[in-house]
UniProtKB/TrEMBL annotation:
Monomer. Keywords: Calcium. Its cofactor is Ca(2+). It comes from Flagellimonas marina. This is Aldose 1-epimerase.
Length: 258
């Protein structure tokens, strides 16, 4: 476990996973073992969304990739690259066509291994400054590689009536619950505020949208995404791809507590 500290905040990181963000004694991150979700954060890459109705195949310029829900990155392990008192950086590297064991097999998937036909390097770094946590994702690899990116943090809820403010509109927890597993789409948005016992604002750079998901009342996931997958059929997920240019693609998420 890695701990980052500032005057008012502490951050806990377990093998690249954000497991705690405490500001002035208040825990903002959903805790493993609590109802709702087995994780506290993860990344969705190189695809976002389910693939089961497309026989777990996603169309790419090099043919077809075998991908389960939200891609193969979350099945890989991070390696620690650097660490200071207020920062840490991790990396995952993938060699094209390398089979990655699928944790959903055999109970929830017919595919035992996931395969992507491109090399890539995925870096995740944390930087804590006072009451602000900045998380940066840096993607490098083959020029022209298609990809989507989503960040999937879960926030612990302390009150009975939290609200989410986005694009000057309020979203209730009941509205998120009503959408179910598809997750509530928040289009064209780069800043969301979760108003609970304490407030936290999630600001992004590089991402275009959010989606919000929960199936319980004690947590909510507020997820920056490059593409909302339910705008197309699963067979057409490739329509949501961006392409990697000649330089690294950089995305940022800031958790800000005032």
């Amino acid at each position: 476990m890695i701990e980052l500290k500032s005057k008012h905040a502490t951050v806990g990181i377990d093998a690249g996973e954000l497991v705690s963000f405490v500001v002035d004694g208040h825990e903002f991150i959903h805790q493993k073992g609590s109802p709702g979700w087995r994780s506290s954060d993860t990344e969705m890459f190189p695809i976002i969304g389910p693939t089961n109705e497309a026989d777990f195949r996603v169309e790419v310029p090099k043919g077809e990739a075998i991908q389960d829900q939200h891609g193969l990155l979350r099945e890989m392990e991070y390696e620690l690259q650097s660490q200071t008192g207020d920062s840490a950086a991790f990396v995952k590297q993938y060699q094209a066509e390398t089979p990655i064991k699928n944790s959903k097999f055999p109970d929830k998937s017919s595919e035992s291994d996931l395969i992507w036909p491109y090399n890539f390097r995925f870096e995740k770094s944390f930087s804590l400054q006072d009451k602000t946590l900045e998380i940066t994702f840096t993607i490098s690899g083959e020029k022209g590689m298609p990809f989507m990116l989503g960040y999937h943090p879960a926030f612990k809820l302390h009150s009975n009536d939290p609200t989410i403010t986005a694009n000057q509109k309020e979203i209730s927890l009941d509205e998120v619950l009503a959408v179910g597993s598809r997750a509530l789409q928040v289009q064209n948005c780069t800043s969301i505020t979760l108003k609970d016992a304490k407030e936290i604002t999630i600001k992004t750079e590089g991402f275009s949208h959010f989606m919000c998901w929960t199936e319980v009342r004690n947590m909510v996931c507020i997820e920056p995404i490059s593409f909302y997958p339910y705008t197309v059929n699963q067979e057409d997920l490739h329509l949501g791809f961006q392409k990697l240019g000649g330089e690294k693609a950089i995305y940022k998420v800031l958790f800000i507590v005032f």
